[in-house]
Amino acid sequence: PSATSSATSTKPATRAMQEPRVSSQPEHPKTSSSLVGQKSIPAPSRPQTTTTCSAPILNCETIENKIRKNIQHCWRGILKVCQEKDVSKLGEIPVSDFLDIAEKFNLDLSEGEINQITTKYDLKKNGRFAYYDFLQSCILLLKPQESSLLQRVIIQKPQKPMSPGPQTTSFFSAMLRIQPQILHCWRPMKRTFKSYDESHTGLLDIADFIQVLHEYSIDLTEEELFNILEYYDKTLSSKISYNDFLRAFIQ
After folding, report:
1. What PANTHER family does the annotation carry (predicted)?
2. Domain 169-248, what fold?
3. Rg for the chain (alpha carbons), in Å?
4. Per-residue pLDDT reduced to its tens digit, 146-164
5. 60-139 has which fold?
6. Where are the alpha helices (DSSP H) in the chain?
7. d(Cα 85, Cα 91) in Å, to the nearest integer?
């Protein structure tokens, strides 16, 4: 306003010259109101996106809980068929292929449940099903546990909340491969981890971590070790939380 008032006061030339200025003056409120209108667009759109995203995820949790036991018995077969169909090794297959697999392995899903699962795991919105993410959600526990299930098996929560690294396809593949072995020996393995952890920090040097795995005949390839460390040691501290590692396998 001060700029316009100074402009009009410094140039009192002719009425004809001032008339366009006065008539064009309402353009300032127009542009400001249009900017306000533009800024207000994202505000209502945010709740809509959160509601649309959260609905299928909440529903899928109950569906995944329902089929978890089934999948834990046949996930190797599911993974094998998925990998055969995943020619480009991207960790995803066409949704139609997943429907055939769900029917083949008797996952007992209704049409509505199938729609919700496929919507949730169509991560790139390209009509493809991210089977690694689906399997890790049912087999591995990489998210914070909310129920009291882990209190029963006494795996301590970390002193510092973990800031995990990337969950790559190679990481899932490595974790799924060693899952059956870990399930058979996680209790004595936990005791061995603690015996190496003399300072009781819940953390082990990478060399000690590998040594304990080796004692229980769990040998990782160089690539598998790299992917697991990339997830559990994102900050490159050369230490790994063995409780976080074991927690991923126990549901």
Report:
1. EF-HAND CALCIUM-BINDING DOMAIN-CONTAINING PROTEIN 6, EF-HAND CALCIUM-BINDING DOMAIN-CONTAINING PROTEIN 6-RELATED
2. Recoverin; domain 1 (1.10.238)
3. 28
4. 443 444 444 444 444 445 5
5. Recoverin; domain 1 (1.10.238)
6. 2-10, 15-24, 27-40, 42-85, 95-104, 111-120, 131-139, 149-153, 169-196, 206-215, 222-232, 242-247
7. 10
